[in-house]
Each structure stands twice: as structure tokens, then as C-alpha cells.
Design goal:
alpha/beta; five-stranded mixed sheet; 14 helices; 9 strands
Length: about 400
Amino acid sequence: MISSEKIETCVSSITIKSSEIIQDISSDIHEPTSSSTSFETFFQLINCNDPPSWPPITDSVRVYLVTQEPDQGKDADFSKSMSDDGRRFSPYWFKKTLPNNEVIDRNWLIYSKNSKAVFCFPCCLFKSNTLKTASIACTNEGFSDWKNINRILDHEKSADHRNHFLQWKSLENRLKNSQCIDDKLQKAILLEKGRWRHILRIILDAILFCTKNNLAFRGSSTTIGNKHSAKYFSLLFDCTPDVSHNEQMAEVIRYVDIDNGKITVEKSFIDFINMEEKTGDELAIEILTKLKADELDVQNVRGQGYDNGANMSGKYHGVQAVILNKNNLATFIPCAAHCLNLSSVHAASANVKLQFFFDVIQKIYTFFVKSTTRWKILMDTLKISLKGHSDTRWASKA
């Protein structure tokens, strides 16, 4: 157990406030200046300067890119675009001189720093296979034939480009003036987003308050059989590896506390149980044995709360099913925090880059675990035990 002095020392070093956490979270997400897509977390890592990295163009993707406006890459190092014949892209092409000598921006032209090619922003958004200079409108290829760079002029004069440019500006104006068909829906989404950010701020304030004041998160009493406690109670069990890589199950009960006529629902931490078994049936036996040792009658259980792992929440052989067979009043409710964690996992899996990253990590783990020789080499090198990725184990996210 960690002493209260150590906890207070650690807490004293905490200077961040929940408002700052919210601000950091908000700063990582590109806030649209007007109505935009509700799938903000999916789009936040899109590189607006690199069309080849864009996801397939849908209405939602198109709206997001229009609200963000094109990143033309004017600050790029154009010497890196040099071809074999010594030619390279020139920032001169970002400007256009009209017959009356007025100079205007070609705000539709993008120079991709990653692809070292140029793209037409509106034509990439509203694709057409009839363009003569198709490469400049192709999100996968782009145009990098600097020897024939005058084709940019041909593209600019084409009817398709003009139509796509008008479509771009028309959509941009409708978004800025809230004239889109789903404007009311987008406003409702923004209000809901603000509501949940406010809730998150409250939760963080509560966590920081409890941490700084060395207060327990789950009740204030660990005494079983308190005279003010009710007869009936609910079970809360959760397994997690400790620092020595031993599996520990935390035992918590939830009950009604009656004190001077005031009725409250309390949570009390009871004990840690060292676990070696993994299946639902084996875990249930351990839990029932511990309840008996604590003189808690399983017939008085009126609720169960576990994570969404199959061994805990399984319909037939999960812990909840075994206990429910012994007491049909012990209703099972999955852990809301774990459900939120799984929601975050699924939201992150929608991002192609993140999904690819974790797939690679899992393949590396699989490569070593399938060979005892390779595994021994890995363990001798790392000196720690590795586990495969699992959507239902919080430890795998670390």
C-alpha cells in the first residue's frame, strides 16, 4: 500500500487544472468555423495539405475540408520537388496576373509537402473523369511534370475546373451562412458536444479535488457489517495486473447507509484477491468463497457490476451468469466506465492511421509469442511480460 505521505507528495506536484485539460483536448481538435461534420474525432488527423492521405471523398469529408480551407503549402521547401532534369515547382504559380495587371491568388492550388506535387483543391473535392489534366485533380497522383507546368493554365481555363470552383465557393458560403439542409442537426450536435464537455470538466474537477485532498473514490468506510448498513448489497469486482504482474481482483460492495434518518448509497472497498484463474466459472468460485469468508450471504446480493470481458459478463459461463443461477435477484449491469472505454476504442479504430499502428504492434507481439525461442529472447531482453491487445482489457491500452 502507498502511504498517505507519498500520495500527498505526488499530489503537491500536480499543477494542472481541469479547465486546462479541457483546453488541451479542445486545441487538439480542429473546430469548424460553421456547421460541419459530427464525426470530428475521425477527421482531426486529416492532413489538409496532402490529398493522397485523405479518406474517400464523402459528403462529410467534403464539408470538413471546406470548413478547414485548403492548406496550400506556401511555406514548403520547394527545392525538394526537383525532378531529374533539374526543374522544380515555383511559388510563382500561387499568383495569377489578370489582363489589367491585377494580381490575385490561386487559392485553389495546393502544393503537397509530402507528395511533392500540386493538386486542384475543388477538383479533388468534386471529381470528374473528363478532365484533360486529370492528374492535378487526382487525390492519389497529383501533378509534378514541371517541364509542362503550363498545363496548370489549361486546367484553370477548363469548364470542369470552373464548375468545381463554383461548387466549392457555393458550399463554403452556405456553410458560413448556415444555409445547409442539415443546419439544425449540426447545431444540435454542437450543443450536445458542449454539454458533454461540460460534464467532462465536472468529472475532472471531482477527480482532482479527491486527489489533492487524499480522499477515497469509493466511499469512506471499509467496515463490513456497519450497524447503519442495509441487509442487501451489490457486488463490484474488477481484475487488473499490479506492478509485479500478478492478477488482482478488487472487491467492492455497494449498499444503503442509514444515518440519523438520512439515507445514502455508499461504496466500500473490501479487499484485493490474488487471482490465478481466468475463466468465468473459476472466477465465480473464487468470488463466492471470498463472500463466504467475509460472512456475506450471496442470497442477499441484489446487483452485480463488472467489465464487459467475456469471463465476467458472459451469458452462459461468465461470473454474472454463475451468480445469477444461485440468486436470480442479482441483476447484472455492465460497468459504465468500461463501456465508455470501449466506445473510445471503437471511435479511435475509425482512424486509419491509429488502426494501422495498433495492428503493427499486435503483429509484432504475435511474431514473438508463436515461438518459444523468440519469446525467450524477447523476455531476456525486455525483462517484462507482454500481453496481446484486447478491446476489453484496460491494461492493453497502456
